[in-house]
Write a structure and sequence with these properties.
It catalyses: (2R,3S)-3-isopropylmalate + NAD(+) = 4-methyl-2-oxopentanoate + CO2 + NADH. The chain is built from 12 helices and 12 strands. Bound molecules: nicotinamide-adenine-dinucleotide.
């Protein structure tokens, strides 16, 4: 283990600073009790950066993000900033981070804690104990491919309406190989299985995808179990029998659909972490940005109602995937599980039967207490 890991914390706007304050308690606990050392820097992103500097991300903050072992972000945005020019909107800060760090692999775990299985849209027995990870290619594919656009279809008199809309699904072998490596690396830290999804039955880009993923497997990760599935069947399997999967690897378009569907398996938005990874740095670890899936929740900001678990689980992902501290990550996840099993709930996790919710800080304190009690 290195002397210390560098971690850039960007709380952002709305509930971002509230949930991040609870992550800081967790980081402090690991430093005090597990011999870890984090070189933590705090900075601004989004609306808070705009208020201070007139831009949603300064060049100095960008440089710090490029140099950090990991970046942890809360959330950006809010109604106050809706009137700003597009170029300085809070979301531009986040997009700049993703683009300049070249974060091509988006990781979305779908983990269903037993105590929350009734929040899922599926039956308890199908989702209880679920723990899968979707690795989605994020910087290429049909959302970026050229040519694209809406054109007049002048030479086609039979086209009622006279226009044509075009998008292009385009992948290079290099783009497929690098995201495949990310998925195989994740699988090695988990249960050692990757299922790659495409539409090789009807798309040439799908055939290339399948061949390149297989090539990376055979040449570099033969120890990982690799299967292939057509993406339509994959989505069906995801809602039929989701626990059959460990890591799902897929492209930008199919990943968009699969990861949103997987999110519904687990219930609340306040529970969903994510990570975006780029190429390995000189130290061998990938560039990485960890963030909850939710936004800045202006409707509850400043009221102590936000659920900090998505942000705390994002830090658990950083422990596992950036800092090689899988045991500590599992310890933190067990602490979350234990607190939920004890019936501790923030307002978003209250069922129709009601009860008295804990505050954001109350949830953070209970998770730290569970760590201390040896979760
Ligand atoms: P949102 O995720 O902020 O909120 C949707 C709903 O979920 C709200 O009712 C909110 O109260 C609730 N919610 C979200 N996170 C919660 C948590 N941790 N605990 C309890 N309840 C939670 O999405 P929105 O309302 O569509 O967007 C609000 C702002 O956030 C907008 O400015 C949007 O652009 C921005 N946004 C930012 C990100 C990001 O930073 N990655 C993502 C999505 C939206």
């Amino acid at each position: 283990m290195p002397d210390s890991y560098s971690l850039l914390i960007l709380p952002g706007d709305g509930i971002g600073p509230e949930v991040m304050a609870e992550v800081v308690k967790v980081i402090d606990w690991f430093q005090a009790n597990r011999g870890m050392s984090f070189d933590v820097t705090h900075d601004l992103v989004g609306g808070s950066a705009y208020d201070a500097h007139g831009v949603p991300l300064t060049d100095e903050t960008m440089a710090k993000a490029q140099a950090a072992d990991a970046v942890l972000l809360g959330a950006v945005g809010g109604p106050k900033y809706d009137v700003l020019d597009f170029a300085v909107k809070p979301e531009r800060g986040l997009l700049r981070l993703r683009k300049e760090m070249d974060l091509f692999a988006n990781l979305r775990p779908a983990q269903c804690f037993d105590a929350l299985a009734d929040f899922s849209s599926l039956k308890r027995e199908v989702v209880a104990g679920l723990d899968i990870l979707i690795v989605r290619e994020l910087t290429s594919g049909v959302y970026f491919g050229q040519p694209r656009g809406i054109h007049d279809d002048d030479n086609n008199p039979e086209n009622e309406g006279g226009r044509v809309g075009i998008n292009t699904q385009r992948y290079t072998s290099g783009e497929i190989r690098r995201v495949a490596r990310s998925a195989f690396e994740m699988a090695r830290r988990r249960r050692g299985k990757v299922c790659s999804m495409e539409k090789a039955n009807v798309m040439e880009s799908g055939i290339l995808w399948r061949e390149e993923v297989q090539w990376v497997h055979d040449n570099e990760y033969p120890d990982v179990e690799l299967t292939h599935m057509y993406a339509d069947n994959g989505l069906m399997q995801l809602v039929r029998q989701p626990r059959q999967f460990d890591v799902i690897l897929t492209d930008n378009l199919f990943g968009d659909l699969l990861s949103d569907a997987a999110a519904m398996l687990t219930g609340s938005l306040g529970m969903l972490p994510s990570a975006s990874l780029g190429a390995p740095m000189a130290n061998g670890r990938p560039k990485a940005l960890y963030e909850p899936v939710h936004g800045s929740a202006p409707d509850i900001a400043g009221q102590g109602k936000a659920n900090p678990i998505a942000c705390i689980l994002s830090f658990a992902m950083a422990l596992r995937y950036s800092f090689d501290q899988g045991d500590a990550a599992a310890e933190l996840e067990r602490a979350v599980e234990r607190v939920l099993a004890e019936g501790v709930r923030t307002a978003d996790l209250m069922g129709p039967e009601g009860g008295s919710p804990v505050s954001t800080a109350g949830m953070g304190d209970r998770i730290v207490a569970a760590l201390a009690a040896g979760a």
